[in-house]
Amino acid sequence: MEDPNSAETYAKIKSLAELLSSTPRKRAIAFTGAGISASAGINEQEFPEHFETTTAPLPTNQFALEQAIPTQAHMSLAKLADEGYLSYVATCNIDGLHRRSGVQPARLGELYGNVFLETCPKCRAEYLRDYDVAMHRNRAALAELADVHATGRQCTTPGCDGMLRDTLVRNEETLAEPVITRALQEALQAEVVFCLGSNLESSPFCELPVAAKERGAQLIIVGPERTMLDGVADVRLRMSPDRFAEMLMKSLGKAIPKFALRKPIWIGNTHEMVTPEKGFDTENRHKWTVFVRGDNNSPLNFIDRVEFRLAPSFDPALIVLEEPPFELTRVGRGPFEVLITIHLTHNFRRGSLTFRHMLLFQDIGEQKCVQIDLTGV
Ligand SMILES: [Zn+2]
């Protein structure tokens, strides 16, 4: 193993930082394997269940996969891609962590698919879920489908009724043509190729850095495991991808961004004046609706239930809604404050958040956007 504190390691990483910063900028790409996700608690070898269609119980690893957050190496690559130091990242991991870390889909090749992604074969819409789409299939709908990739969910694009499919490449299947073609193109154009956390044994993945090397690219291999290409690497660093990323980013004078998963929601109310009824004191009475809604109608599947606590004059004053729409309509006088408690049920975060909302009966009502940080820190 490389000693990260040695002067030699430091010098190698400093020269890589200079290489990345050179003007004009070199075309650099990265290939990643299982080793980049190991520190996220993921063992990429333990996913045979993704390639079955049976209702097998969830393995313990499943829990780690949905809860896993991107590592320092993932976050560093995302930052470098975002700032144009890396033009492309390809991975043979199916854990979706590169996409989760923020690498733009246009710069990303998930060669074997992404367990969180399902796509519509008709209109090409992509649905990136918080849950593993291969494990959470709609089995009732699947009974009529012979397609092993079908997830049993339907496309929600207006006018499209396509049946969604997972993106995973099964053992006996070949890689999707556009994905592998793009990866090869990127390899052939690259001047610098980083290979992180892969033993570079599985074909055709291992052929990509070879193709790049043969075209004159500099090959940098990072990871503690021995690889098939160690003999031809220009720089070989036998250290963890995380430690390498930390040292490289430091050498570049850049901070590694912190991972955060935020979901915007809208909290607010609408209202309308109630027509006065003869013989009743109906002055300033309104029919109002207080709500918690997803941004742009996105599903609120990270909310378990919502409690609305009204003024004590209402009976009952505490109303709990256990499924969407999280909207409550009443008639009364205002303004008064409603306490809204949102109970979260996300993999990353449970617990509750309470908001105070003042019911206002002016204009169309009152609403505000709130960012829920599901990473919970
Ligand atoms: Zn569709």
From TrEMBL:
Source species taxonomy: Eukaryota, Metamonada, Preaxostyla, Paratrimastigidae, Paratrimastix
Names of required cofactors: Zn(2+)
Domain Deacetylase sirtuin-type residues, every copy: 6-289
Protein name as annotated: Regulatory protein SIR2 homolog 7
Endpoints of the signal sequence: none
Residues annotated to bind Zn(2+): C120, C123, C155, C160
Record organism: Paratrimastix pyriformis
Pfam families: SIR2 (PF02146), YEATS (PF03366)
Keyword Metal-binding attached: yes
Subcellular location: Nucleus
